[in-house]
Amino acid sequence: MDMVRQIEESWIQTRKKELPEIHPGDWITVYWKIKEGERERIQPFTGLVIQIRNQGIRTTITVRKVTEGVGVERIFPLYSPLLDRIEVHRQGKPRRARLFYVREKVFTQVKIRERKPKNQKQPQDTDQSASPSSNV
């Protein structure tokens, strides 16, 4: 059993470097590999992350989108070899970890505040002549 855990941890560490940081409330696009006969293509799925289940190598994310008035949810295994890449479009800051209340709402009614990215710094005001104390 210990050997299985070591293999799982090594797979997680290699895939974690490729994946962006994802939280519930984020608008993402998941690019999933689909095999149709001999061909293989990549299908994008854009939607709102409503749930993340952390279970080691079996970690999954649930993404919801509304297409022509019909809500569609899809569960993606995060460390699957069929997952090509994930793009984060907007980062949300919800008050809950599981956003199941989104299912009952119309998608335009869902209000989730946007989270500011951690790596983006605020521009500092370096212009000293515009300060109000110098005009007195």
Q: Secondary-structure map with pairings?
A:
Blueprint: H1 2-16, E1 27-36, E2 39-53, E3 60-67, E4 70-77, E5 83-90, E6 92-93, E7 113-114
Antiparallel strand pairs: 1-2, 1-5, 2-3, 3-4, 6-7
Give a verbal description of the structure.
The protein is mainly β and 136 residues long. It is 11% helix and 39% strand. The protein has a 5-stranded antiparallel sheet, with no helix packed on it. Strands 6-7 form a two-stranded antiparallel ribbon. The longest helix is centred in the N-terminal third of the chain and has 15 residues, at 2-16. It has one helix at residues 2-16; strands spanning 27-36, 39-53, 60-67, 70-77, 83-90, 92-93, 113-114. It is built from 1 helix and 7 strands. The chain has a domain at 22-106: SH3 type barrels (Roll).
Quick summary:
Helices cover 11% and strands 39% of the residues. It has 136 residues and is mainly beta. The longest helix is centred in the N-terminal third of the chain and has 15 residues, at 2-16.
Relevant terms:
mainly beta, single chain, 136 residues, SH3 type barrels
Report the CATH C-level class of one domain: Mainly Beta
Characterize the largest beta sheet: strand count, sense, and whether it forms a barrel: 5 strands, antiparallel
Q: Please tell me the CATH architecture of one domain by its name.
A: Roll
In what range is the share of β-strand residues? 35-45%
Structural class: mainly beta
Unreliable segments of 5+ consecutive residues: none
Radius of gyration: 20 Å
The ordered H/E elements are: HEEEEEEE
Outline: globular
Number of helices, where a helix is a run of at least 4 consecutive DSSP H or I residues: 1
Tally the beta strands: 7
Average the pLDDT over all residues and give the rounded result. Answer: 82
Question: Might you state the CATH topology name of one domain?
Answer: SH3 type barrels
Biggest sheet strand order reads 4-3-2-1-5
Percent in helix: 10-25%
